[in-house]
Specification:
Shape: globular
CATH architecture: 4-Layer Sandwich
Number of helices: 7
CATH superfamily: Ribonuclease Z/Hydroxyacylglutathione hydrolase-like
Largest sheet: 7 strands, mixed
Structural class: alpha/beta
Order of helices and strands: HEEEEHHEHEEEEEHEHEHE
Strand content: 15-25%
């Protein structure tokens, strides 16, 4: 039977459509574009990022032989990408074991990537990327940039810990699904190139090098360079440091003093191992 009052139904249909559309928008707003990036420090230069959509990215998973390691190798049950910036043993860490156990992809300089395949990591999991390249993957962008540092053991004997030569040292700039961007420079000393990457990619966070034998003004200058034409930098995390620094080691307070002298007021987070820090754009 034909509805005698079709116009009366129209507002109800319209309202229902609007409600459905509003619900869809709410669902989208609660997705990867607005959810936080989770950051954990697990000791030395080992950081774990969990993206808004649940992707797990590791840097320098140095566990075996690391007195400050917050996890055991077998406890890393999920990893999607492992970023390895150079061929030093503490940068490589337990990458091979974790990649083989989880199926994680390894992003590393070309020669170092080749070495990983000789250690039993399937070719399909090794993504060779030299400075100046990028990886677009599952809504994430990982840019590979240069680093002022060595790469490899330099030893002429076979090693399961590190290759003789690991290729050009690298750093990484990661942009997550929600737009939040972090710069992990690997073990790089301050270099003017950091100003170029700051201007180009405008990272929100920097995990700066604070090696025990580091020069305070080098650490401060690296941070200053990453503020170049970059008003986004608001978060600083240290790496390559001990929970209990040995006597004479570089400290956060020393870096803080240098930054204050430069007029840089960005706070430094003194991370607690395994504590989860969350960030949105």
């Amino acid at each position: 039977m034909r509805n005698p009052h079709p116009i009366r139904l129209f507002p109800k249909v319209l309202i229902a459509s609007l409600l459905i559309g509003y619900a869809v928008l709410l669902g989208a707003a609660a997705g990867p574009q607005s959810d936080p990036v989770k950051v954990e420090w697990l000791g030395w230069s080992f950081y774990r990022f969990t993206s808004p959509s649940g992707k797990v990215i590791l840097t320098n998973p140095f566990i075996t032989g690391n007195a400050d390691a917050a996890v055991k190798v077998e406890e890393i049950s999920k990893a999607d990408v492992i970023l390895v910036p150079n061929g030093h043993g503490d940068e490589i860490g337990d990458t091979v074991a974790i990649a083989r156990a989880t199926g994680a992809k390894i992003v590393a300089p070309f020669e170092l990537g080749t070495w990983f395949t000789t250690k039993g990591v399937p070719e399909a999991q090794v993504l060779r990327r030299n400075p100046g390249t990028r990886l677009l993957w599952e809504g994430l962008t990982i840019r590979v940039v240069g680093s002022v540092h060595g790469s490899g053991s330099g030893r002429d004997t076979a090693s399961d810990r590190a290759p003789f030569y690991g290729g050009a040292a690298a750093g990484f700039i990661i942009t997550f699904e929600n737009g939040w961007t972090v710069y992990f420079p690997g073990s790089s000393a301050a270099t003017q190139d950091m100003a170029l990457w700051a201007d180009a990619y405008k990272p929100d966070a920097m995990i700066f090098l604070m090696h025990p034998s580091g020069e305070p003004r080098d650490a401060g200058m690296a941070i200053k360079l990453v503020t170049t034409n970059n008003p986004n930098l608001k978060v600083l995390f240290p790496q390559h440091h001990r929970v209990m620094p040995p006597p004479g080691a570089l400290t956060i307070s020393e870096v803080r003093t240098v930054l204050d002298s430069m007029g840089i007021r960005i706070p430094i987070t003194d991370p607690v191992r395994k504590q989860v820090y969350e960030f949105t754009k």
